[in-house]
Design goal:
The chain has 187 residues and is mostly helical. The chain is built from 7 helices and 3 strands; from the N terminus they run E-E-H-E-H-H-H-H-H-H. The chain folds into 2 domains: 91 residues, Zinc/RING finger domain, C3HC4 (zinc finger) (Herpes Virus-1), CATH 3.30.40; 96 residues, no CATH class. Strand 1 and strand 2 form a beta hairpin. The mean pLDDT is 78.
Length: 187
């Protein structure tokens, strides 16, 4: 989605979205509202989502927000979001946080790959393709670290681990793309 659903409102101010931003837990907030939530808590830690209480480690402004950059108040909010992403966007928070962020990053990556006007850099597309292709080849190949014929259903554990490593790798690649696009590239 290029922005929040039309029938929703910000869960912090309960009004229409102003400079909408999507968090890594897939919830939408006004950029200024989520910055107020952050400033109300500890400034040295990422804020928690007001809806699901997960740590927000990345805020992605909607495409429409980026075009509002001419408006001085919108530009100020986008600058705050950029600062937030610089502080907390480059750290993933460990394996548990990465697993929680998977639906957000994989969903956004799929939408971006399917969008005809949006294009990821070629090198990132190649890395994603190679990671997916190698995991598929391993899963369907008869060569296994733990053979299914000997251990039965437990033999599929290595296949599951390889697929999870691939998904985490693809998610990490796309996270770095979002981080660089929305706040990490500013100096």
């Amino acid at each position: 989605m290029e922005g929040p659903p039309d029938d929703e409102e910000c869960s912090v101010c309960h009004g229409p979205f102003r400079v909408p931003c999507q968090s890594n837990c897939s919830h939408w907030f006004c950029g200024d509202c989520i910055m107020l939530v952050w400033h109300h808590g500890s400034p040295i830690q990422p804020c928690k989502c007001p809806l699901c209480r997960r740590e927000i480690t990345l805020l992605v402004p909607a495409e429409a927000s980026m075009s509002q950059g001419d408006d001085s108040s919108a530009a100020e909010v986008l600058k705050k979001v950029e600062t937030y992403n610089r502080c907390f966007g480059d750290s993933s928070g460990g394996l548990f946080q990465r697993m929680q962020d998977l639906p957000f990053f994989i969903g956004r990556l799929a939408r971006e790959l399917a969008h005809p006007e949006r294009s990821l850099p070629f090198i990132i597309r190649v890395r994603v393709f190679i990671a997916i292709a190698l995991s598929v080849v391993y899963v369907i190949s008869p060569v296994d670290i733990v053979p299914e014929s000997v251990l039965g259903i437990i033999g599929y554990l290595d296949d599951l681990i390889i697929v999870m490593i691939c998904i985490l790798h693809v998610s990490a690649i796309y996270r770095s793309v979002l981080y660089n696009r929305h706040g990490g590239s500013a100096s």
